[in-house]
Amino acid sequence: MKKAIYYINQFFGQIGGEASADYEPEIREGVLGPGLLLSNLLDPDIEVTHTIICGDNYFASNEEKAIDKILHDLEDHYFDVFVAGPAFNAGRYGFACGAICQAVQERFGVPAITSMYEENPAVPIYRDQIYIFSGGNSAAHMRKDLPVVANFMKRTMNGEEHLSAKEEGYFPRGVRLETFHKPPVISAERAVDMLLKKLNGDEYETEIPMPSLKGVPPAEPISDLSQSKIAIVTSGGIVPDGNPDGIQSASATKWGQYDISGLNELMQGEWQTIHGGFDPSAANENPNVIVPLDVLREYDREGKIGEIHNDIYTTVGTGTTEAEATRMGGEISEDLKKSGVDAVILTST
Amino acid sequence: MKLEIGNFHVQDIVFGEQTFYEHGILSINKREALSEIYEDEKITYADLVIARPGESKRIVPVKEAVEPRCKVSNGSLYPGTIHPIGTLGEGRTHALRGSCVLAVGNKWGGFQDGLIDMSGLGAEQTVFSQTLNICLVAETNETFEQDQQQKKNKALRFACMRLAEYLGKSVKNMTPEDIEEYHSQPVTKRNEEVQKLPSVVYVLQVQSQMIEDGYNSLLYGWDTSHLLPTLLHPNELLDGAIVSGSFMPSSSKISTYHHANNATVKALMREHGETINFLGVIVSNLNVKMAHKKRSAKLVRQLAKSLGADGAIICEEGYGNPDTDFIKVIEELEDAEIQTVGMTNECTGRDGRSQPFVDLSTKATALVSTGNVSQVLHLEPMETVIGDLESLARDGNSGGWDGSVKEDGSIVMENNGIFGADANAGNHYKTVVEF
């Protein structure tokens, strides 16, 4: 039998209403309030061993302290899954459920599940991190919302495969992964069906919603290039011959840093490109077409730039995911900053 | 233009004294088949191995798939490649349905090659686990590219086409078990009822990004990087006008098998005259230079507009950089008030949290997803490996890396390296959803 621990606020924990909203977090053995319903729903697969009660006001005003105390209390107990709420449309309760679920999931590595109304302001903040089930807007929906959560908890604990967020009933967490269409309708049929609907002005649902784009603000321009330290970073896959660090030719997750001090240019045979997305012959013949060290050295000699950083940084861009590129860019930037680099020439292909 | 494809549904394949087909059994005279293969001096070693659905067999590195077929009338298969130039899309073609010839390296895989598991966890990833596969396992003297990550694989791929035709010829003079008919009037000669239906084009963007010859998809034997968007009759595509290229990561690849069995085109032909007026296939390309991307996108739009298209389905054979060509075409067509549906695969990362395409557009309102190239697969060992398992880890496979192959024969890899997995031509029910 698996074990669950349940978080509720002061009202559902039968401490009191708004007047008791400053109730400090405490952990109790067993269940009370909606925990009784939850227990019945989870029986016999999961046992709710403990209940945590915390005032919504206390949590809102002392989030760090509240989380610390609750995590500390939880350390004494073994549990397989954590559940909180439902918070319905209650903003403070929603934030508390979201925050405590995220903290517990991070610390203990167990799935953390809650439920709240789609307009609860906590939804956009926490939906990507934890399972937030779509629930009703008032406590009148308790008897509808809790069974959905309980069912998911049981199936998860039994190791059953999850369906899509939409099918399960929780807010999509921004995780797009493969599945097999049920029933098995091939993509050709789905495409023709979608086109016919679109042509007839009927409603249809795209399989890939276009996400909103997060922009990156550009840095300030260089005031005096002749005083600046310049580094070359490339996603064109230029590496020392033999690719000593085994950087991948597509879907890269690694980057390399290579010393070019004393080199006037990159010589054929000493460097190669491992980029899997274009014809490599030109770059292998003259690696400077991707990492323009030869021209940069000229600029240096002519005094156009202050100096050239000792290292180049390289990875491969083709098929590399946005997430990995962001991480690698961040790591490379750390080194650039440490080395006092003022500006980067970033080459792709 | 009328094309009849006469089907012979293969139930099993065996080796025997003669190459013939009877009652669902394809029998192959291996010696005779191989002697045809060896006619190309570039082939230094060749063997044939059968792999059936459900068997504990892992096939890697797979370079191409071709359906065993023969032209009974009106032309030759794959003109401009294994046969001289001629036209396609009319007359009778016979096909050994349910079977497939795979070109497999005996050694030396590459970025563009793929893996097929005939059973187990990995089988459902690709529809090629469902065909009776005749694996042509071979080595060539193309040593110039032996240690190149990107391989043209020319000898093997062309041998695959020739072997497929050799087998297809076994049913040339027989009566098919059933016949698929693809029949449509020339565009301006269609009757009033059909003209009233919404007009639709299918835009096929094939892999064409390599500069050197020998890697890109071929249209009537012509390198598709050198073409401007052009109109093809659907019958031509279904009859073998396009031969697959050799550099795109394998799950995105549209093999020659799937070009001739393009499920989207078949579905559109079925709807033709009923719900749509299917105008034809616009073959376009995926380019490297921005000017070329724009040129092809704008000419797709001009062609679609001139034809009077109301709607379009766009298929991208690729991911990453080609997403920009895909999105450009969608935007151009939507701007011309042509309703679009795009179908392609995504690259959302192993954790699924990266944006699906390199380029996005709010005008891409209707999209069908065929898979995630980054999907991590942990696959159990198979009893038999056809080909070279180490090629997955050693030769720069797009879905493999150093460490992909474990000592016990189990593997960990990305869907990117599964042969034809995402089937952007529409042939599979694998998709991507949000969790």
Provide structural commentary:
The complex is a heterodimer of chains A (about 350) and B (about 425). The N and C termini of chain A lie far apart (about 55 Å). Chain A has 2 domains: about 1-170, F420-dependent methylenetetrahydromethanopterin dehydrogenase (MTD) (Rossmann fold, 3-Layer(aba) Sandwich), CATH 3.40.50.10830; about 225-345, no CATH class. In chain A, helix 5 links the parallel strand 5 (about 110-115) and strand 6. With about 350 residues, chain A is of the alpha/beta class. Chain A contains 11 helices and 13 strands. Chain A has helices at about 35-40, 55-60, 65-75, 90-110, 120-125, 140-155, 165-170, 185-200, 280-285, 295-300, 320-340, and strands at about 1-10, 25-30, 45-55, 80-85, 110-115, 130-135, 175-180, 230-235, 240, 255-260, 270-275, 305-315, 345. The longest helix of chain A has 18 residues, at about 90-110. In chain A, the strands form 3 sheets. Chain A has a 6-stranded mixed sheet with strand order 2-3-1-4-5-6, with helices on both faces. In chain A, strands 10-12-8-13 form a 4-stranded mixed sheet, covered by helices on one side. Chain A has a two-stranded antiparallel ribbon with strand order 9-11. The radius of gyration of chain A is 28 Å and the shape is elongated. Chain B has about 425 residues and is of the alpha/beta class. Chain B has one domain (about 1-415). Helices cover about 20% and strands about 30% of the residues of chain B. Chain B has helices at about 30-35, 155-170, 190-195, 235-240, 255-260, 265-270, 290-305, 320-335, 390-395; strands spanning about 1-10, 10-15, 20, 25-30, 45-50, 55-65, 70, 90-95, 100-105, 115, 130-140, 180-185, 200-205, 220, 220-225, 230, 240-245, 275-285, 310-315, 340-345, 365-370, 375-380, 385, 410-415, 430-435. In chain B, the strands form 6 sheets. In chain B, strands 5, 6, 9, 10, 11 and 23 form a 6-stranded mixed sheet that branches. A 6-stranded mixed sheet of chain B has the order 16-18-13-19-20-21, sandwiched between helices. In chain B, strands 7-8-1-12 form a 4-stranded mixed sheet. In chain B, helix 8 links the parallel strand 19 and strand 20 (about 340-345). In chain B, helix 1 (about 30-35) packs across helix 2 and helix 7 runs parallel beside helix 8. Chain A: Keywords: Oxidoreductase, Selenocysteine. Chain A: Pfam families: GRDB. Chain A: GO terms for molecular function: glycine reductase activity. Chain A: This is Glycine reductase. Chain A: Its EC number is 1.21.4.2. Chain B: It is an enzyme of class 1 (oxidoreductase).
